[in-house]
Amino acid sequence: MQTLVADHPLIAHKLTALRDINTETPVFRSLTDELVTLLAYEATRDVRVEHVSVQTPLALADGVKLTRPAPLVIPVLRAGIGMLDGMARLLPKADVGFVGLARDEETLVATTYATRLPADLTGRDAFVLDPMLATGGTLEVVLGMLASRGAASMTAICLLAAPEGIARVHAAFPDDFPVPVKVVAAGLDERLNERGYIMPGLGDAGDRLFGTI
Ligand code: URA
Asked: Of 71, 74, 129, 198, which shows the fewest CB atoms inside 10 Å?
């Protein structure tokens, strides 16, 4: 598994505003949207393309287009939904699947409650959207589902990652895993606290995106 932590002043600026306890939901949502688009640019660096010719007003030019089947974008419910528009802006022709996982706040174990994915992902680049890579339990399950369906590559886009989560996903998908696996994050934080929250983090991403239920 390859890990890429964005190193860009605009991303760092927006991430700082996102962390701020005084940033309210509407601004949090639009910052998330902008950050995901910036991260998506990097996350799609290896997306599969094929060579084509295009007729300009003057001559034929060489170009590329995205290979079929279209990439699949998978927001992890609930908080990943807040990342979908930012991703779709760069990949408007991508198909969208959904996976819902809920974390038991006592055991920190993630349980799947919804899966809407194509049965066969052969030849597809898959992009998982989950803002917080904390324990890594959720991402391990989701990547496992995608791998078992034959995805050609798997890339997770996260706002923040914890070292514990990166280590767990790396252990599950080591460098010799037959499918390329990448995690792209806007920031890598220090650690998890005893409740499994990323420190210093930004709190509960779902609550901050959608309000506390
Ligand atoms: N989920 C969140 O929303 N925040 C964390 O810090 C960890 C998991």
From this structure: 71
